[in-house]
Amino acid sequence: MYFIKQNYREPITIKQLSALAGMSEANLFKKFKHSYNCTPVEYIIQLRIEHAKQLLINNPEIGIKNICFESGFNTLEYFYRKFTQITGKSPKKFTTN
């Protein structure tokens, strides 16, 4: 968990996490889902969205595109889709409220 919280803006693979945890990918996935009620990928996305929300609130002048990449997303389209799915608002609407 510490590794994820420190590196969520970087590309992280299940293979990498399982090697760090010293267990198989399937076992890591199962234990993570049991403990956190989400997959490792879902957890990473949630951290990235929280980071993006803070940037949108505190530094909106950076711009949505830069916030997308600063938060660890690879494409603007995927960022918009996940942000809207999790918050119920697009990044643009989030900044205007």
From TrEMBL:
Instruction: Please list the coiled coil stretches.
Output: none
EC code? 2.1.1.-
Highest taxon, organism lineage: Bacteria
What residues does the HTH araC/xylS-type domain cover? 1-97
Question: For this chain's UniProt record, which GO biological process terms are given?
Answer: methylation
What are the alphabetically sorted keywords of the record? DNA-binding, Methyltransferase, Transcription, Transcription regulation, Transferase
Task: List the PROSITE patterns.
Answer: HTH_ARAC_FAMILY_1, HTH_ARAC_FAMILY_2
Gene Ontology MF term list: DNA-binding transcription factor activity; methyltransferase activity; sequence-specific DNA binding
Which Pfam family is one of those matched by this entry? HTH_18
Gene3D superfamilies reported in the protein's UniProt record: Homeodomain-like
* Name of the protein in its database record: Methylphosphotriester-DNA--protein-cysteine S-methyltransferase
Its gene?
adaA_4
